[in-house]
């Protein structure tokens, strides 16, 4: 007998049709046992992973049957099996999302999300999340009437509580997967329904707690729930007493959270691809920028000390080292990551009090010039003249273009030319200018000829032979 995954063509289509017919009839007759329903739904789930020859699953009738098993059947295992089929169908076929909303099932999903299992949280958060793409789902109604914000916050509160408890290292995998789906749902709803974003403000302390508690692998610092945790803060209002208390607690822990973010940033910028930088580090920098904007003065000073070039960075040309400021500067000119490049430049400008003079002093004119021109910000008159020669924090002279301390610049070690080498170079220069004059394109004065007239050149000895350039 052929296995489920091996069926194709008419055989697969026939099997899918038979399963759906059986499940649809059982909604009225209820002749199947719980085990038989579970087996049928599981088989249907496998068939639905590949939409070829599985058309009945994606029809309105097929989705109606699955939604009834998902939301109208009391047996949790049966409901979850049906939700798995629905989640796969909505992911594979965008049209199914419209059907799901048309049937009014998003409100049922919000109600069922209150069910307290990791599988339910994972499945229902994903299903609601998928309705935010390509449908006319009324998110305001889900927040106001179905309590979506309160449910999401309660889920995050539970995750935060468990993250701080003993034994968090041995958490079951489904818990982390459920958290990721809830965070993605939070991000999309707060992005697409900005009018109700304040309803999610109580989530900020829980997200902050989870970021501080989460292990940060050195090789993949933004893997697992950490990336969606950071993304979740991008749309939320951090300018509330509740949010500020979580972000900047009183005492010696005031900068603990931002230091955590900068540590993640440091690891995240070590040898990733440009695509990874653009997708994962850009939101992280957006959050750091928001945190800095709302930070008290003492925390702002600390952040500037961590992200702006230090005296150690200025021992060489800025952007050449392995520090966080050096990594930021290298990437603020990366042509392959325009969004990342833009947010780094804006962050560094804001760290410089939005003052062009301070900005040039902090990062060097070489890094500052493009941002200033692009944003129509007047360039300080002394930026390129060499007048900006003192670093305010150290009092030492710096190169205004590269930001390096002048006393650390190394002159190129070029050996002294011999008289013969000088003569040969002069002859080459003479020949090049003579050829250029003959083209008639420009009228140019040969500097070698002029040097002879002014008595600044010695005659070449007769026995010296100089080869003409080819």
From TrEMBL:
Protein origin, superkingdom: Eukaryota
Asked if the keyword Chaperone belongs to this entry, the reply reads: yes
Provide this UniProt record's keywords sorted from A to Z: Chaperone, Guanine-nucleotide releasing factor
Q: Which GO terms describe its cellular component?
A: cytoplasm
> Which GO MF terms does the UniProt record name?
G-protein alpha-subunit binding; guanyl-nucleotide exchange factor activity
Signal sequence annotation: none
> InterPro entries, alphabetically?
ARM-type_fold, Gua_nucleotide_exch_fac_Ric8
The UniProt entry's GO biological process terms, in alphabetical order, are: G protein-coupled receptor signaling pathway
Q: Give the similarity note.
A: Belongs to the synembryn family.
Q: What name has this protein been given in UniProt?
A: Guanine nucleotide exchange factor
């Amino acid at each position: 007998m052929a296995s489920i995954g091996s069926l194709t063509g008419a055989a697969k289509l026939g099997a899918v049709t038979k399963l759906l017919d059986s499940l649809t009839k059982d909604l009225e007759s209820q002749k199947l046992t719980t085990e038989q329903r579970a087996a049928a739904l599981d088989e249907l789930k496998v068939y639905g992973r590949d939409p070829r020859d599985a058309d009945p699953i994606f029809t309105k009738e097929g989705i109606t049957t699955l939604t009834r098993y998902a939301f109208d059947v009391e047996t949790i295992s049966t409901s979850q099996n049906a939700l798995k089929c629905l989640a796969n169908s909505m992911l594979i076929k965008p049209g199914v999302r419209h059907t799901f909303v048309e049937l009014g099932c998003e409100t049922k999903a919000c109600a069922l999300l209150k069910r307290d299992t990791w599988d339910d949280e994972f499945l229902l958060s994903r299903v609601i999340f998928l309705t935010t793409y390509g449908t006319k789902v009324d998110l305001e109604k889900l927040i106001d009437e179905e309590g979506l914000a309160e449910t999401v916050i309660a889920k995050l509160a539970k995750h935060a509580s468990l993250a701080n408890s003993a034994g968090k290292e041995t958490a079951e995998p489904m818990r982390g997967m459920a958290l990721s789906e809830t965070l993605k749902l939070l991000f999309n709803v707060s992005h697409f329904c900005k009018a109700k974003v304040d309803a999610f403000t109580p989530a900020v302390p829980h997200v902050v707690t989870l970021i501080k508690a989460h292990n940060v692998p050195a090789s993949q610092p933004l893997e697992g729930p950490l990336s969606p945790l950071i993304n979740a803060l991008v749309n939320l209002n951090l300018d509330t007493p509740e949010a500020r208390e979580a972000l900047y607690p009183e005492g010696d822990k005031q900068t603990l959270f931002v230091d955590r973010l900068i540590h993640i940033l440091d690891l995240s910028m070590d040898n990733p691809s440009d695509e990874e930088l653009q997708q994962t580090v850009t939101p992280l920098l957006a959050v750091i920028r928001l945190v800095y904007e709302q930070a008290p003065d003492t925390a702002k000073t600390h952040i500037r000390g961590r992200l702006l070039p230090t005296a150690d960075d200025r021992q060489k040309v800025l952007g050449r080292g392995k520090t966080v400021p050096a990594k930021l500067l290298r990437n603020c000119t990366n042509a392959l990551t325009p969004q990342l490049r833009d947010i780094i430049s804006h962050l560094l400008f804001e760290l410089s009090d939005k003052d062009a003079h301070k900005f040039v002093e902090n990062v060097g004119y070489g890094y500052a010039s493009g941002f200033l021109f692009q944003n129509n910000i007047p360039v300080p008159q002394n930026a390129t003249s060499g007048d900006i020669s003192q670093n305010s924090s150290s009092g030492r002279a710096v190169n205004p273009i590269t930001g390096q301390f002048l006393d650390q610049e190394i002159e190129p070690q070029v050996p002294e030319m011999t008289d013969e080498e000088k003569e040969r170079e002069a002859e080459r220069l003479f020949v090049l200018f003579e050829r250029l004059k003959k083209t008639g394109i420009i009228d140019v004065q040969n500097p070698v000829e002029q040097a002879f007239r002014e008595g600044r050149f010695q005659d070449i000895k007769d026995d010296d032979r100089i080869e003409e350039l080819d």
